[in-house]
Amino acid sequence: MGSELIYRGSETQPSSHSYSPKSVKPWASVTRPIHYLLREQRLLFVFVGIAIATLIFTVFPTSPAPYVAPHSRFTTLIPDSITYFPIETQQKFSSAHRLGFGSTNPTGKIPLGLKRKGLRIVVTGGAGFVGSHLVDRLIARGDSVIVVDNFFTGRKQNVMHHFGNPNFELIRHDVVEPLLLEVDQIYHLACPASPVHYKFNPVKTIKTNVVGTLNMLGLAKRVGARFLLTSTSEVYGDPLQHPQKETYWGNVNPIGVRSCYDEGKRTAETLTMDYHRGAGVEVRIARIFNTYGPRMCIDDGRVVSNFVAQALRKEPLTVYGDGKQTRSFQYVSDLVEGLMRLMEGEHIGPFNLGNPGEFTMLELAEVVQETIDPNAKIEFRPNTEDDPHKRKPDISRAKELLGWEPKVSLRKGLPLMVSDFRQRIFGDHKEGSNTNNASSS
């Protein structure tokens, strides 16, 4: 061991600080990346990544850039769903149609040869008289419909023919309580409409009009749905203007026995417009005049249903007051057409939806006599409190802006209603089947 430490001067000691680099191997710049890829199967992962990227771009191709027309306010995108989206979100509330959840169609047109995309729509009060006919039309159009009803005046029988249809849902729910849904449109019909029903519990009636409308407007605000309120001609009260235009503010008794309905609907209109102005909710307002047709409640106190039921039962037709009060009667299919045009149109309203044909109560009784029983007697009774003396809509605004006017006359529509009432009162299934076919057509 010690000999290793002896210095031998004759021997040259290597310098520890000297460095001689290795000779550069030829093709090193080519072979090194290859060795790197082959080490630990890196090449396999590269091919897997390329395959995944190819699959993604094949299944989800990129959309072409939108075409912007010169001086155009909108940019139209055409994705796979063939739905149009406006670029300027501030124009959201002027678009004409809703084509799917969260989308709008500023042109109001569908490209030729392409199928219309169904909407998801909630109809409150959808098991009622008007609501059930509206549901029929929406389902036939290809939409998915959710009916919300507490069955106070609605009947499950009105919509049970849709049971089993995957586009139909029924929820037993009172709109006074909040409801969470994802929808494109809301038709808010929930409220008792006949004097017998809305006077039965006036506090509940005004809660339905106010709290129920608040809940549905809140839902529309959260999900960006378009909201349609079915108001009433009762907002005009006992009118001093005849016929009534939408600009007329009405003559309503705020403390009368009918005010729970009259003032409730007026407040509902106020809330609807406040949500539109303050929260940007898309809204529509329809003021519905007297409507009749199949599926009306038989003993609801409204004049047409009263007269028809009394005539079928061989009872006297009860006329309140002197019978000179006037009303205008529209068939339910005309009303449904007007509601749908209003929802799909560009105008907020309010719009009068009614038949301008005016009848006194005595004239209506005579038409019922002609249709059911010429020998039916008429019985006069004292008039009810705050009963309007005249009621006739001016529908010039609906004609001009919606292209809508009623088509079914009283003498044509009344027999269809009589057939339905006869089946429900006496159980004549043959008549009932005929009525369903006629009303659906």
UniProtKB/TrEMBL annotation:
<feature type="domain" description="NAD(P)-binding">
    <location>
        <begin position="123"/>
        <end position="415"/>
    </location>
</feature>
<comment type="pathway">
    <text>Nucleotide-sugar biosynthesis; UDP-alpha-D-xylose biosynthesis; UDP-alpha-D-xylose from UDP-alpha-D-glucuronate: step 1/1.</text>
</comment>
<keyword id="KW-1133">Transmembrane helix</keyword>
<dbReference type="InterPro" id="IPR016040">
    <property type="entry name" value="NAD(P)-bd_dom"/>
</dbReference>
<keyword id="KW-0456">Lyase</keyword>
<dbReference type="GO" id="GO:0070403">
    <property type="term" value="F:NAD+ binding"/>
</dbReference>
<comment type="similarity">
    <text>Belongs to the NAD(P)-dependent epimerase/dehydratase family. UDP-glucuronic acid decarboxylase subfamily.</text>
</comment>
<comment type="function">
    <text>Catalyzes the NAD-dependent decarboxylation of UDP-glucuronic acid to UDP-xylose. Necessary for the biosynthesis of the core tetrasaccharide in glycosaminoglycan biosynthesis.</text>
</comment>
<dbReference type="GO" id="GO:0042732">
    <property type="term" value="P:D-xylose metabolic process"/>
</dbReference>
<keyword id="KW-0812">Transmembrane</keyword>
<feature type="transmembrane region" description="Helical">
    <location>
        <begin position="42"/>
        <end position="60"/>
    </location>
</feature>
<feature type="compositionally biased region" description="Polar residues">
    <location>
        <begin position="10"/>
        <end position="21"/>
    </location>
</feature>
<dbReference type="Pfam" id="PF16363">
    <property type="entry name" value="GDP_Man_Dehyd"/>
</dbReference>
<keyword id="KW-0520">NAD</keyword>
<keyword id="KW-0210">Decarboxylase</keyword>
<dbReference type="GO" id="GO:0032580">
    <property type="term" value="C:Golgi cisterna membrane"/>
</dbReference>
<dbReference type="GO" id="GO:0048040">
    <property type="term" value="F:UDP-glucuronate decarboxylase activity"/>
</dbReference>
<dbReference type="InterPro" id="IPR036291">
    <property type="entry name" value="NAD(P)-bd_dom_sf"/>
</dbReference>
<keyword id="KW-0472">Membrane</keyword>
<protein>
    <recommendedName>
        <fullName>UDP-glucuronate decarboxylase</fullName>
        <ecNumber>4.1.1.35</ecNumber>
    </recommendedName>
</protein>
<keyword id="KW-0333">Golgi apparatus</keyword>
<dbReference type="InterPro" id="IPR044516">
    <property type="entry name" value="UXS-like"/>
</dbReference>
<feature type="region of interest" description="Disordered">
    <location>
        <begin position="1"/>
        <end position="24"/>
    </location>
</feature>
